[in-house]
Structure formats: C-alpha cells, structure tokens
Amino acid sequence: MTAIDWTWVGWGALAGGFASALFFAGLAWGMTRALASTRPTMILMISGAVRIAALLAVGWLVAGQGASALGGFVLGFVLVRFAILIVARRPAPDRGASCN
User: Fold this and answer.
1) How far apart are CA 93 and CA 14, in angstroms?
2) pLDDT at 4
C-alpha cells in the first residue's frame, strides 16, 4: 500500500487554492475588459490562453512533487471553485421600489 504524505497534500491544496483564486480572478478581469471592449473575442482568447498556461505551469510544478501534492492541488482548486460559484450565484439584493 502507498503511504500518503499529508504534508505534500497540504502544500498542494494551498497551491491549488491559490491557483484557483488567481484563475477565476483573471476570468473576472478578462470578462470585465471584454464586455467594455469593441473586440471582446481577442481579449477573451488572450485571457484564456494566459490563464490556462499559468494553471498548467503551476500544476506541472506541483505534479513534480508527487501524487500526494497533485491530489491536494486538485482538491484545493475544486474547493475554491465551488466557493466562488456559491458566491457568484447568489441572487442580487432587492433594492426596493424606485421613486420614479
């Protein structure tokens, strides 16, 4: 049976959470820029390419530490993703009736 190195799982989860937060912050930034632009496709393509390349680079570095670190990375990424989705899907607050 293979032993799980919990230290590397923790470091991998920390790296995955940080990478996920940066990934989705970059997505929000790219979407904001694209919606205000006359050429949104170009901005979204560049933003996506940069975010994917950075995520793959960090994942590659973490995977080099072993399966425990990679498992922690995936766990951290998915947990932060779920947290971001919960926040993003909240309904907008009711602002009340307009005076006009």
Assistant:
1) 32
2) 87
